[in-house]
Input
Amino acid sequence: MALPSVARCISGVPVSKPIAKSSKLANVCYDIRGPVLDKARAMEEEGQKIIKLNIGNLAVFGFDPPDEIVQDMIRNLPQTAGYTDSKGLFAPRKAVVHYAQEKSIAGVTVDDVYLGNGASELIVMSLNALLDNGDEVLVPAPDYPLWTAAVSLSGGNPVHYLCDEASDWYPDIDDIRRKITPNTRAIVVINPNNPTGALYPESLLREIVELARQHQLIVFADEIYDKTLYDGATHTSIASLADDVLFVTFNGLSKNYRSCGYRAGWMIVSGNKKLAQDYIVGLNMLASMRLCSNTPGQLAIQTALGGYQSIKDLVGPGGRLAHQRDVAYELLSAIPGVSVVKPKAALYMFPRLDPKLYPIEDDQQFAYELLAEEKVLIVQGTGFNWPRPDHFRVVFLPNSDDLSDAIGRIARFLDHYRKRHSV
Output
């Protein structure tokens, strides 16, 4: 006699079936807000004070957005309750067109600009519109992990090309070339770079453009830190270097204008748009599906781009960000077995731990131990898809005293770690 209900019921009570997450999340991680942060939150709930060097959230470190942005949003808020055009309001999109012209990106019209709830939303949208199962996208290692996650969620395969620490963290062109296959659809260029703080020269960008040209690849350019530059450095938009390759460029207010929570970003489609008409139809479809990005954030864009660029005061000589970068670099470099490339841009450093002194097998566990012993929260290097457990990322956003305290705690932890693991 068959008993089909036994598997589902015990004494008439249905057996609960666990609800599993989607298999599409199997290769997705975002360790910047991952398990180590969860542990830090639990410690804070117990009353412990944690120094957080894990995320570029400027407001919590006293970096306020320009007052003119705040005041414009307040004044306009009563008129922002309705939906806008799915790509965004005309005036801020026109301001982005003017910005593209300043960056020498040719042929950009208002129709080529999409506003989003931060650049992050637009990154996911751009990949969802492009990728079929099995398509490959070249992503830097280390990377900002949203890129790897978004490729995977879109059904694609992220293929990581190496950036060379010995060459100021520049992309290894030969490694990129080796990893291009018939399935490769695009290459991601994060410049200025998160997590390394690297800034790429025009000559290197031209080599990447040439590879994209030869293999008919789309170039996705993440340029969210293009104004956060030190020592008088200048930034070149890769999309300004050709008109026969398709470029999708991402930027926003989060970092340069200290407006992370406003979620105001944009995406520019430029270059060879004639061959991308069907892809652009897909972008328009996805933009319409989310209805529009938040209107108050949109209204901050025109004011920000047209106003006083106060980021220059922070990154210039004597500026707070420039000073804190120097403090962090000097203190980290003084720790035995720690080496770090001095950032030319952005808000981060990606120090290396000499494996002879620090034989780390699991760098997430290493981050746990640092958190438990010294109450300092960092992100392990493998969280940025770096292939070896010998790096970690820190932000240099805390004021100099707090930064010195935090790196002093890291130094003390590493001293104990060396002694525990010495042969």
Notes: The first strand starts at residue 9 and ends at 10. The chain has a mean pLDDT of 92. The two ends are 67 Å apart (CA to CA).
